[in-house]
Specification:
Elements (H helix, E strand, L loop, with lengths): L3 H10 L10 H12 L4 H10 L4 H10 L11 E6 L2 H5 L2 H12 L12 E6 L11 E3 L2 E3 L7 H6 L3
Parallel strand pairs: 1-2
Antiparallel strand pairs: 1-3, 3-4
Helix pairs in contact: 1-2, 2-3, 3-4
Length: 154
């Protein structure tokens, strides 16, 4: 159920858009902050709150890759797989993360600490290869940095 604070935060987004339905991505992100992901029930509640069909909001939620539609770990690792990262060491970084975490792309570690997800671009091509852990951007990655970076996140 949407909290009063979430409803007010969503309503505060309305002036930024021509219609309140235009705030759908922001509304989903607001709800996601509560649990780390957006359930089907959350999508139904947000759709009703925005006066839009569930199916339409579900389309938004599944299109936007930063809206997580299933539970994720305490920390989400987004590893950039754009061409800049590919040519500067993506594969080695990806393989190191998979080995260290014991989780493949799209999976969550057994202790629910990390979820490893690919992302088409982080907008950090000048610091490729790059990844984000939560809201922290890590660029110019080298395999020997991975353990130090992961240790920062409990």
């Amino acid at each position: 159920m949407l909290t009063i604070d979430e409803q007010q935060e969503i309503e505060a987004q309305y002036p930024r858009y021509a219609t309140k339905q235009g705030a759908s991505v922001e509304a989903l992100k607001i709800v996601q902050r509560r649990c780390g992901w957006v359930s089907d029930e959350d999508v139904k509640e947000v759709a009703a709150f925005l006066d839009m069909p569930y199916e339409e909001l579900e389309g938004v939620a599944t299109f936007y890759n930063l809206v997580f539609r299933r539970p994720v770990g305490r920390h989400t690792i987004l590893i950039c797989d754009n061409v800049s990262c590919w040519i500067t060491g993506y594969r080695a970084i990806r393989d190191a993360l998979i080995t260290r975490l014991g989780a493949e792309l799209g999976e969550t570690t057994a202790d629910k600490r990390f979820t490893l997800l690919p992302i088409p671009c982080l907008g950090a091509c000048d610091h490729a290869p790059a990844m984000m852990v939560g809201l922290d951007l890590h660029g110019d990655l080298q395999v020997d940095q991975i353990d130090v970076i992961l240790q920062k996140y409990e």
